[in-house]
Amino acid sequence: MNRPEDGERRASRRGFLTGAAGLAAVAGVGVRAEAAAPNPQSTEPFWGLHQGGIVTPAQSHSYFAAFDLVETRREDVATLLRAWTAAAARMASGQTAQPLDSALKPAVASHAGDAQTKGGDAYATPDSSTMAADTGEALGLSPARLTLTFGFGAGLFSKDGKDRYGLASRRPAALVDLPKFVGDQLVDGHSGGDLSVQACADDPQVAFHALRQLARLADGVAQIRWVQSGFMPNFNGKETPRNLMGFRDGTNNPRIGDPQAMAKVVWVGEEGPDWMRGGSYLVARRIRIALEHWDRMQVAFQEQTVGRHKYSGAPIGKTKEFDALDLDTTDKDGNPVIAQNAHVRLAAAASNDGAQILRRPYSYNDGVDFTAERWPPWRQGQEYDAGLFFICYQRDPRTGFIKIFERMAKFDMMNQFVTHVGGGLFACPGGAAEGEFIGQRLFETV
Amino acid sequence: MNRPEDGERRASRRGFLTGAAGLAAVAGVGVRAEAAAPNPQSTEPFWGLHQGGIVTPAQSHSYFAAFDLVETRREDVATLLRAWTAAAARMASGQTAQPLDSALKPAVASHAGDAQTKGGDAYATPDSSTMAADTGEALGLSPARLTLTFGFGAGLFSKDGKDRYGLASRRPAALVDLPKFVGDQLVDGHSGGDLSVQACADDPQVAFHALRQLARLADGVAQIRWVQSGFMPNFNGKETPRNLMGFRDGTNNPRIGDPQAMAKVVWVGEEGPDWMRGGSYLVARRIRIALEHWDRMQVAFQEQTVGRHKYSGAPIGKTKEFDALDLDTTDKDGNPVIAQNAHVRLAAAASNDGAQILRRPYSYNDGVDFTAERWPPWRQGQEYDAGLFFICYQRDPRTGFIKIFERMAKFDMMNQFVTHVGGGLFACPGGAAEGEFIGQRLFETV
Question: Is this structure's pTM higher than 0.95?
Answer without folding.
Answer: no
